[in-house]
Amino acid sequence: MSDLLGVVQREFVYLRYYFEIQFRQIFWYWVLGMAIGSLVSVFAKKPIHALFGKMASARRGLWGIVPAALLGIASPLCMYGTVPIAASFRRQGVPQDWLAAFMMASVLLNPQLIVYSAALGANVLCVRLISCFVCGCGAGLLVRLFCREKEFFNFGGFEPRADRDTHPRPLVRYLFSFWRNVKITGPYFLLGLFLSALFQRYVPPETMTALFGGNKAWGVLMAATVGVPLYACGGGTIPLLQAWLSDGMSLGSAAAFMITGPATKITNLGALKIAMGWKRFLAYLAFVMVYSFALGVLIDRFV
After folding, report:
1. Domain boundaries, the chain
2. Cβ(105)–Cβ(77) under 8 Å?
3. What pLDDT digit, counting tens, does each position of 214-258 carry?
């Protein structure tokens, strides 16, 4: 019994060591991400969406996809908040290819997640920014090519959600928003650190290299596949990605994981399924998987 207790204590010390190392490395990125995300949500959310609404009268045509994708990345809303906004834009006459670019980019990235991703290094951050922007533009282009004469989205059941940031004092609105971010992302952040500690302790680095870095195409496919069930919160996956990259995960595999994860997160899928219907929803999933795989293979080949 004493031997078993000694083993448990020793393993606890190891896990705590790995947990604390990553906590110190990532904690301030997490705090900064919530601080910036709350600033955007409280003070810049309405101007961003108002700017997108005004684009309807700009007659930019195909090129409107580009600013639409950029505004999607800048939007701090979750997908259940983005879809009602997109529905209101459509009623204002915004083209649906712009909406597709906006929504796709919004699914994949937001200001808070950009700051979190900085913990992974400049190369990974640049790859994430560019690949999410290109994915948004690609979604918009496909909708323009294949659904120009018919509606791609069905926004009939969506109405704008009530704004929770309504307190008359700006500082109080900001603090409320920051605390909501802590409650939402905190458990996933801690869970990600714990899972990362488990991987570092019990999964040999050569196993991760063989899985995600040896055969590049296979590693990309595995990362794209793993991203589907494992992704629950952007902040929670940062510790895992940091550990995997240090253990030999290729940059292309990381890029594939960062696309399929948020694009297939269960809360995002629920909103998108309602707005698209089954056929277009399945086309969306196929696009995400094909794009993530092609992206990962190209990055490993040329970057």
Report:
1. 15-302
2. no
3. 556 778 888 888 777 667 677 778 888 888 888 888 899 999 999
